[in-house]
Structure of Homoserine dehydrogenase:
Amino acid sequence: MEPIKVGLLGFGTVGSGTFTVLKRNQEEIKRRAGRGIEITRVAVRTPARAQAAEGVAITDDFRAVVDDPSIDIVCEMIGGTGFARELVLRAIANGKHVVTANKALLAVHGTEIFEAARAKGVMVAFEAAVAGGIPIIKALREGLTANRIEAIAGIINGTTNYILSEMRDRGIDFATALKGAQELGYAEADPTFDIEGVDAAHKVTIMSAIAFGVPVQFDRAHVEGISKLAAIDIRYAGELGYRIKLLGIARRTEKGIELRTHPTLVPEKLLLANVEGAMNAVVVQGDAVGTTLYYGKGAGAEPTASAVVADLVDVTRLHTADPEHRVPHLAFQPDSLSNTPILPIEDITSGYYLRLRVADVTGVLADITRILAHKGISIDALLQKESEQVDGGNKGETDIILITHETVEKNANAAIAEIEALSTVVSKVTKLRMAVLH
Ligand code: HSE
């Protein structure tokens, strides 16, 4: 049988990695897919940069590749939500399957793209969009399909995990760790999407849709990054037996779905807490399977290409299948998506880490614990530093760190407002959320 023909849009890290892996493993891939998979055209802004794509027609005209009738699959590797959206929708309109690593595009425009693909009877495959080389989309969509998924919690941004590991290992602040990460190429020159949690939020938004059978709704996600995280909180969390990780969390509750990305205290005895450096890991809890964990490289040329090529094989195998016999894009049949609400952050339930600086006088702790008790918030752990151990404090002041049991976030916020109003409390309260994992 003739090889299936692929048009590659973009020849950066992921595009060139895909070309390399496909070429190196072509014989095995052909035996798996049932026919060869061949990149026949590459579109790139600067064709000179794609010289490694030997023997392939290279152009700077992206639309020409998308419109080429000989191309069966368009592989979108350019990123962003502008031109990439136009090209993906155009490829679909031309009846081509799409493979993409573009998390931002699917988190923001997924509903439009999947509907266009459904109407046209083509596939949009996106394993590489979440956690790079870890086959988490496959696991959620197919391997765990028997389950009612209860929760997902993932370290799904390698840049921030590397920075957090450096902050903890070396006791350095965020700015110093970021600078080091940039010098070593772990963080981009403009690291905003990574450090502010946007990249992780895109990925968990996609996972939430597949896990719970809801539309992709990035606009409802709560997004907090690590740029305001203080070194002292990493230290105090460590003293209490926790590591701080940037987690993307999607959780089913009776009231709705929690969809949130923020720094999170994870008990250090959990495997997830021990995922260090630029590695990724995702915990999925299902009612039948229990807790499962997926670990691997979340970025890089060949790990990401591993996911892209897996999608190319899937599409090649299912190319001739009736569209209704294929695995639905979001795991659930498109007419069976639910309208379960995504909860505003004030309505989520969590335990909290609270740090505050107080005047070291009689009764201050009693005042704080009374406020928490009035709100029905129970204390799980408490750490009070001796005044002389506190960094940058005035004489006679100390830090109190509390860990609470679970409560609704707006209840915690109300207690914090009352605590901050006490005359003996001399700082704002730093609030971090605890992982809800077992
Ligand atoms: N920038 C991402 C990370 C990889 O640091 O994990 C691509 O999503």
The first strand starts at residue 4 and ends at 9. The radius of gyration is 24 Å. The chain has 14 helices and 18 strands. The pocket of L-homoserine is lined by residues 157-159, 194, 199, 298-299 (CB under 6 Å).
